[in-house]
Every structure is written in C-alpha cells, then in structure tokens.
Amino acid sequence: MGKEKTYALINYGCQMNESDTEHYAGQLVEMGYKRAEDFHDADVIIVNTCCVRESAEKKIQGKIGELKAVKAKNPDVVICVAGCMAQKDGEKLLKKHPQVDILLGTSYVNGFKELLTGFLANRKKGLYTSLEINDAEFEGHRVRQSPFHAWIPIMYGCNNFCTYCIVPYVRGRERSRSVENIVEEIKQAVKEGYKEFTLLGQNVDSYGKQTGDKEAFAKLLRTCNEVEGVERIHYMTSHPRDMVEAVIEAVRDCEHVCESFHLPFQAGSNEILRRMNRGYTKEKYLDLIATVRKHVPNAVITTDIIVGFPGETEEDFEQTLDVVRRVGFDSAYTFIYSKRSGTPAARMENQVPLEVKKERLNRLMALQNEISLANHQKLVGETFEVLADGPSKHEGVWSGRTRTGILVLWPTEGKAYTLGQAVNVKIDTAQTWLLKGKAID
Ligand code: SAH
Ligand code: SF4
Ligand code: F3S
Questions:
Q1: How far is the CA of 160 from the centre of ligand 2 (A)?
Q2: pTM reported for the whole predicted model
Q3: pLDDT of 3 strictly over 90
C-alpha cells in the first residue's frame, strides 16, 4: 500500500479567497486526499493568490519562489497557483516560476477536481484563465476552517470598476447564486453544526440585480433569517451607492442579522470620489450613515479608506479626516493607494509620493485609533454574548466576537470552553482593537 496522498493550501487575500480555498479542500478530500501537516511534505500544493495591492503580490511571489526548492526535492509534487494573481499574470507567472504545474484563474474553482485528475493522467502543464465560465451555483462540499462559522458566497465578480481597483478585471462580471442554492447550503451547514454565517460578495447590494429587483439582497437577508438553526448572519461587502433602505430595515427587523455595517467610503473629497468612480458624494454617504443610525441606533459601523489616490491634495485628505470624525467609525481598514497596472487610476497624473502617502496614513490611523478607543470605552460595564473562537495568545485567556464583530477576551479561570460556544462576557477594559472582561455564566 502506498502512503496516503496529502494536500496543502496556502491562502492569501480576502474572504472570497478563503471561501474558494475551502472549496478546493472539499474537492481534494473527495479525491481521497488528507491535509498535510506541513506543505513541504504535501503531494498537491495550492497557493491561492491576491493582487489587490502590490504589497500582497510581493509576499506571494516570495512564497511561490520558495516552492522551487520543494519541487526540486520532490518532482512529483503538483504545484497549483490559483486566484486573482494567477488570473492577472497568466503565462507570465508560469514563465517566471517553472515549478508551477497548474495555473488556475478565478473561474475554475468548481472545475478543479477534473483539472487535477487530467493533470495526474498526462502531467501536462495547464493554464486556465478564461473568465467565460459564468456559472454561479454551488455543488459539492467545502472543508471549512471553522467548526461554527461558515462563509457563504452569494455572488461573484464585480461590475463597478472603481478606477483604482483590479478586482473587476480578475473576478469577471457579476453573477448571483439563486436563493434556493444559497439556502440549501446554509441548511446543510446547520445540519453539520454551523450557526454563524457570512454572506459574501464584492458588492452584496448588487445581489440579484439581473432580475431587476433592487431589494433582492434585503429579501435574501430576510429569507436566511428564517432558516432554522441560524444564529448569526453577517454580510460583506456593501457599496454605499447601492445599499438601499430595505437592507437597513432588514437588519433592523431580523433577529439573526447582526447590527454591523461595513461601508467602505474610500475618500472624503467629492472630486476624488468622482475620479474613483464611486458613484456617491460625501454628503450622500453621510446621509446613508444617518439612515443606518436612524433604523439601527446601536449599529457598529466600519469602513475602508484609501489615502494618496492620484491627485489627492492636503485639502482632499482633510475631507477624509472630516468623514472619519463625523461618522466615528468603530474601526477602519486603511490603505495606501497602490498603483495597479491596467486600471484607469494607474494612468492618472499627479501620483502622490510615497512619503506623503505614509504621512497621511499615520495621521489617519492616529485619529481612527483615538475614535475606536473612545467608542470601545463606552461599552465598559455592558455584557455581550460572544461566540468563543478559541484560546488567545495569552495562556488561560479565550477570545470570541460579539454579534457586531468586536473581539473580546476573557480569562477561562479553569473552565473548559468549546469553539462556537455562546458566552456572556461583562466588559471591564476597553482597548483600541478589543474589549476585555469576565464570563458571567
Ligand atoms: N469589493 C470590496 C473589496 C475590495 S478590496 C469593496 O468594494 O469594498 C478591499 C479594499 O481594498 C477596498 O475597499 C479598498 O479600500 C482597498 N483597495 C482596493 N484597491 C486598492 C488599491 N489599488 N490600492 C489601495 N487599496 C485598494
Ligand atoms: Fe473593487 Fe470597487 Fe468592485 Fe469593490 S466595488 S471590488 S473596490 S471595483
Ligand atoms: Fe485579493 Fe482577489 Fe480578494 S485581488 S482582495 S483575493 S478578490
């Protein structure tokens, strides 16, 4: 008897990539593979890549480079590079890294099993980067990372073409899964013990747009809320231009849909927003936030911000700081603009020098950190239900998240907890990134 075949998955990028990786794992398990302890020993290695910023690409290029030695030691290992960078660079990547056997674009996740079977039969290098495959329905199963939280993609691709962003070029046009197909996956996951779900898409507010129903996403939230056994529903990412009041009302009305809103605003200056092709103004964005607060007063609101978009002046940047102050976000993902070749912004004049971008990022982060801490301090004394997600870095301390996604730490005091267990924690300490407290059950 030969030894058991094993696989290793190395994942980069956003939640959509994590979800795709869970589907690769599902297919490998169906083919009889087991997870390898260490990728150096695996028979099949998949690197799932991201190219949203240059910094991500550099890291990944390094990792793919490392696999050269793995291939030299074991020529039989199958090395696949999948995801957004594979989609973008195609043949160039194969030339640069001859150790790669299969290059899988973003549309081939479903077909991976067949492609791998084909490769094992003929050992011919494969390059699969067409974006013509538009099937959105899901079959098969995923091997999920978490035993209680499940990623559920509801739509793929993006039609927005924000001028800085590579995603529409590497993920193709928008396509939505049917409500039935989504609900079926959620029900199946509930049977397997899952209780927390995140509905995923590059722009979830565009869900079902092809049907002409602007409220399709709001209806989907209400439908998922009714699935028996579902405890928490999150979703990401929303687009401020496309989020309709019906979505906010669904969050208000649905017991299981959590009261957090991730609403990337990217920049505060109307001129920059126009050149980013975001389709809203600062005023419209602030109106939307007001509508969220009106319906869901205890909402946690988070955002994404880019500093140093081409042509951004100090005055433009001040507008970004102004939005941050006015909204008082609970947290923000802040990025230095990264030039992505092929996108319109990469060709714009007046690229902002790196030094200026870094200086703005520091000011922005300092302001946001102050606000995050102040918001968290208001929560001291309150009790939250958190779902336990495992031991923290500190001995004898576990971590979990509130419904709204805030990280909470508490000492176990000798008690045993299980992953996904609901624990009531009374908060006694606030920090910028997290809360600390004591379990009170
Ligand atoms: N579809 C999602 C996720 C896009 S990528 C959305 O629209 O929000 C996540 C974040 O990366 C974006 O919100 C944006 O803030 C940032 N981003 C995208 N392209 C970038 C670039 N070229 N440089 C810097 N940040 C970028
Ligand atoms: Fe990129 Fe804009 Fe699409 Fe988000 S909405 S993925 S930022 S093009
Ligand atoms: Fe990266 Fe692709 Fe996601 S570029 S952010 S992995 S959609």
A1: 6
A2: 0.96
A3: no
